[in-house]
Specification:
Layout: E1 10-15, E2 28-33, E3 39-44, E4 48-53, E5 68-70, E6 74-77, E7 82-87, E8 100-105, E9 110-114, E10 120-124, E11 126-127, E12 133-134, E13 138-141, E14 147-151, E15 155-160, E16 168-172, E17 185-190, E18 197-202, E19 206-211, E20 221-226, E21 232-237, E22 244-249, E23 254-259, E24 266-271, E25 282-284, E26 290-293, E27 299-304, E28 310-315, E29 321-326, E30 332-337, H1 348-357, H2 369-392, H3 403-406, E31 410-414, H4 417-422
Parallel strand pairs: 1-5
Antiparallel strand pairs: 1-31, 2-3, 3-4, 4-6, 7-8, 8-9, 9-10, 11-12, 13-14, 14-15, 15-16, 17-18, 18-19, 19-20, 21-22, 22-23, 23-24, 25-26, 26-27, 27-28, 29-30, 30-31
Length: 423
């Protein structure tokens, strides 16, 4: 390789095709590596979470003649739409008690699952003033794993990890002496060096900085920042930095980087494609040097967080790339793709009929045979049309014949170590 040659990452492994691949409503929501990098979670809209082991033999990818297929060793059927998920921060695969993750789902409490066999462990239940069960929109472990942060509409609940049940501390975000934070708390993150300091993103487009050591009624929120037109979907503190904060939003093409020492001014913006209400995730490597994000245009982009410069981008899917996740200890990036996409020849009546016959409690299995056969015919037509569109697309390349590019699946991308050192 020449001194200035930069190789694009290559796909070395991928998940199997889902039986729901051709369903217009099916797509993959999120992929997330465990803190030790030994496994990853894959969430789709069928209300199931698949647990995979990270392949180890792909490190010698030059010797692989074919794309390696990953198979889940366990599946969790949560029964409802998964809103958010998070691994226990001190998880180690060789220490089973620490191998766990939490989920928050519609109409369900926060659930703790075993990361080894997918079994249920316990639940954390939040209730409102009418003593009704409230389901959070976002969840996050604290950096030490002793607390669980849950985001609701205009409030934040904090559970003690060792005390499942209905005991929690509650903070109202639109009252008190600090600045108000309105809307649904859609994402949460914490600083590694100051675990009591957290960032809250809301669907109102505002990011709040808070200190949960104070009591309710005191100045819980320290500052608020707004630079997005759409609702915040991701907020992250940069690893290795005590001042940088990254935020991304739906229906907003900019990823905003803040210096929290000056919340009145945006440090810089990173441009991607996010023109729908779908959550488009982003992630940073463990060193805090690189930021990676998918997009609704099927591209994965990699930036330098030190300069804000776009280092590389590549076509990963003909669908939206909804989520990316770095492996903490290996040069791998995981991505998943898909979007809700009806065939172009369907009218509004056909779309409405299809959606009405899809029962969110039973998933895609509740669709009638007539609807399924009609859907298959329309999907075949759609595939033919899409192949024509890809052939005639001005940016069509040989990559579009790749298995990863064509399908709604998750893929592992290998970064050449020499390439990373050149960036």
């Amino acid at each position: 390789m020449s001194p200035h040659e930069v190789r694009l990452p290559i796909a070395v492994a991928a998940t199997k095709l889902s039986p729901l691949e051709q369903d217009p409503l099916y797509y993959l929501q999120k992929i997330l590596f465990s803190p030790d990098g030994s496994r990853f979670l894959l969430i789709d809209v069928s209300k199931r979470i698949a647990i995979y082991s990270s392949p180890t033999d792909v490190l010698n990818y030059q010797n692989l003649e074919y794309l390696q297929v990953c198979k889940p060793f366990s599946r969790v059927k949560v029964g409802e739409c998964v809103r958010d998920v998070d691994w226990f921060p001190w998880m180690r695969s060789d220490d089973p008690p620490t191998c766990a993750f939490i989920t928050c789902c519609k109409d369900l409490p926060v659930l703790l699952w075993d990361g080894c066999d997918g079994s249920y462990r316990c639940s954390y239940c939040a209730y409102n003033r009418c003593d009704e069960l409230s389901s959070p929109y976002s969840v996050r472990f604290s950096s030490f794993g002793d607390k669980i942060f849950c985001g609701f509409y205009r409030r934040l609940c904090i559970f003690d990890t060792q005390r499942p049940g209905r005991d929690f501390d509650e903070y109202f975000l639109s009252s008190g002496q600090g600045p108000p934070l309105k809307g649904i708390v859609s994402c949460i993150d914490h600083k590694m060096d100051e675990p009591y300091y957290i960032a809250l993103g809301t669907f109102s487009g505002v990011v709040g900085l808070a200190d949960f050591r104070v009591h309710q009624g005191s100045c819980f929120l320290q500052a608020t920042m707004k630079a997005h037109h759409g609702g915040i979907t991701t907020v992250r503190f940069v690893p290795g930095s005590s001042t940088l904060l990254v935020a991304g939003a739906r229906k907003d093409d900019d990823i905003v980087v803040w210096d929290i020492r000056n919340t009145n001014k945006v440090m810089y913006r990173l441009s991607r494609k996010s023109d729908t209400n779908q959550r488009i995730g982003l992630d940073m490597d463990s060193s805090g040097k690189f930021l990676c994000s998918g997009g609704t245009d099927g591209l994965i982009r990699l930036w330098s967080l030190q300069s804000g410069r776009l280092l590389m981008s590549w076509y990963a899917s003909r669908w939206s790339v909804s989520s990316v996740s770095w492996n903490p200890y290996s040069p791998f990036l995981a991505s998943c793709s898909g979007q809700r996409c009806f065939p172009s020849n369907w009218n509004n009546a056909q779309k409405n009929q299809y959606v009405e016959q899809w029962n969110p409690l039973l998933g895609f299995d509740n669709l009638s045979n007539n609807s399924s056969s009609s859907s298959n015919n329309n999907n075949n037509n759609r595939n033919e049309q899409e192949q024509d569109n890809l052939t005639n697309h001005p940016q069509a390349t040989m990559e579009e014949d790749h298995f990863v590019y064509r399908n709604k699946i998750a893929a592992l991308w290998y970064f050449d170590r020499e390439t990373l050192s050149l960036l």
